């Protein structure tokens, strides 16, 4: 139980902050504070403090820079109608952070310490939580091997940090359907690899396929399973859902999402939507979905909608699909009915516009 020292830092002016919050974009601006704690083998976590946001002194031999012993999380703080601020299911992020740490042989940050760090930062920078439609404060906890050592072994020193970034829509075009490219040259994760945790290396490896998608005019990459190259896994930073049947009839549509095969990230948005969709009366199935089933389903009208979901992207409809075996378009290229209904239902909970019946909101 490490006490958090809160330093008195110089804050940016109200005018400067208002300028940023008027059009924050995604991941471009950061708040006045950051949280930092250190770990030393034999001593454990120590020196937890909320300090001024700014550069980290770093030795060129820092292990994380060489071997990517580095993990992260992403969650959001939402302005509530009563003027308070709440984060969404931070305990789930804390639990996933621990799993990621264990996979990368790092000392885990205990759940209470994770929650205390996030709370301390949100509390200090609550003026940075934007109040515009669909705007939030995106929170980025991360942990890295800070020991200067070039041997390949788990480091003996680590940093745990939390930074915060006011955010508007992740995709510049908002809820406009995104186009996706099914990668057949690359895979995201293989059985026994790191696909089910949030480590930095997964995202480094996604950049070349992402570049390839951009060259073909697509927004995102769809990854297939590494073994058969047949089953849909997820996008580089979002999970996928398919709507079978008509989303305009209450309870008639079925939702299908790829099962947690061990090679895809167990998204907290994914998990929340499974619950919300069932409460709205829809059947939700977690199972394998092949590219062929998706294509056939779109062609014969059984797959009516497809959407991607994640903390940063919320829910984003998928429109055009490009694949070596042939391109196709889901629905008429406009956001699907159930996609938009689930999006509203989730945002209503997160922004406190409906009762939080699941205890998902964590008031700061
Ligand atoms: N899949 C990947 C690879 C991700 O990076 C993310 C984002 O965190 C997700 C899925 C969605 O997870 P969550 O809903 O917890 O943000
Ligand atoms: C998130 O949704 O929080 C993520 O971490 C995805 C990231 C690729 C922006």
TrEMBL record:
GO terms for molecular function: L-isoleucine-2-oxoglutarate transaminase activity; L-leucine-2-oxoglutarate transaminase activity; L-valine-2-oxoglutarate transaminase activity. It catalyses: L-isoleucine + 2-oxoglutarate = (S)-3-methyl-2-oxopentanoate + L-glutamate; L-leucine + 2-oxoglutarate = 4-methyl-2-oxopentanoate + L-glutamate; L-valine + 2-oxoglutarate = 3-methyl-2-oxobutanoate + L-glutamate. Belongs to the class-IV pyridoxal-phosphate-dependent aminotransferase family. The keyword DNA-binding does not apply. The modification N6-(pyridoxal phosphate)lysine is found at residue 198. The gene is ilvE. Its EC number is 2.6.1.42. This is branched-chain-amino-acid transaminase. GO terms for biological process: isoleucine biosynthetic process; L-leucine biosynthetic process; L-valine biosynthetic process. Pathway: Amino-acid biosynthesis; L-valine biosynthesis; L-valine from pyruvate: step 4/4; Amino-acid biosynthesis; L-isoleucine biosynthesis; L-isoleucine from 2-oxobutanoate: step 4/4; Amino-acid biosynthesis; L-leucine biosynthesis; L-leucine from 3-methyl-2-oxobutanoate: step 4/4. Pfam families: Aminotran_4. It is an enzyme of class 2 (transferase). Keywords: Amino-acid biosynthesis, Aminotransferase, Branched-chain amino acid biosynthesis, Pyridoxal phosphate, Transferase. CDD domains: BCAT_beta_family. Its cofactor is pyridoxal 5'-phosphate.
């Amino acid at each position: 139980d490490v006490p958090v020292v809160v330093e008195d830092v110089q804050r940016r002016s109200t005018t400067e902050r208002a300028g940023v919050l008027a059009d924050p974009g995604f991941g471009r601006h950061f708040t006045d504070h950051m949280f930092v704690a250190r770990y030393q083998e034999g001593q454990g976590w120590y020196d937890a403090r909320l300090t001024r946001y700014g550069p980290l002194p770093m030795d060129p031999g820092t292990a994380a820079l060489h071997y990517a012993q580095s993990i992260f999380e992403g969650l959001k703080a939402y302005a509530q109608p009563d003027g308070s601020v709440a984060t969404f299911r931070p305990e789930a992020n804390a639990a996933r952070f621990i799993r990621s740490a264990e996979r990368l042989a790092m000392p885990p940050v205990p759940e209470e310490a994770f929650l205390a760090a996030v709370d301390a930062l949100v509390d200090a920078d609550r003026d940075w939580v934007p109040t515009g439609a669909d705007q939030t404060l995106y929170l980025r906890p991360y942990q890295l091997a800070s020991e200067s050592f070039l041997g390949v072994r788990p480091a003996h020193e680590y940093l745990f940090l939390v930074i915060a970034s006011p955010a508007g829509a992740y995709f510049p075009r908002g809820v406009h359907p995104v186009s996706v490219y099914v990668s057949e040259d690359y895979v995201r994760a293989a059985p026994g690899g790191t696909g089910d945790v949030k480590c930095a290396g997964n995202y480094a490896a996604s950049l070349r396929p992402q570049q390839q998608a951009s060259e073909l005019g697509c927004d995102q990459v769809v990854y297939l399973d590494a073994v058969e190259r047949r089953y849909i896994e997820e996008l580089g930073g979002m999970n996928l859902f398919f709507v079978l049947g008509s989303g305009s009839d209450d309870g008639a549509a079925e939702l299908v999402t790829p099962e947690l095969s061990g090679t895809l990230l167990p998204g907290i948005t994914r998990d929340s939507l499974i619950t919300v969709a069932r409460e709205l009366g829809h059947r939700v199935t977690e199972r394998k979905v092949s590219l062929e089933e998706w294509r056939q389903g779109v062609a014969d009208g059984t797959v009516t909608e497809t959407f991607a979901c994640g903390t940063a992207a919320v829910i984003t409809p998928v429109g055009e699909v490009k694949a070596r075996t042939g391109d196709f378009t889901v629905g008429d290229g406009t956001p699907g009915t159930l996609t938009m209904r689930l999006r509203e239902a989730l945002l209503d909970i997160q922004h406190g516009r409906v009762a939080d019946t699941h205890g998902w909101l964590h008031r700061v």
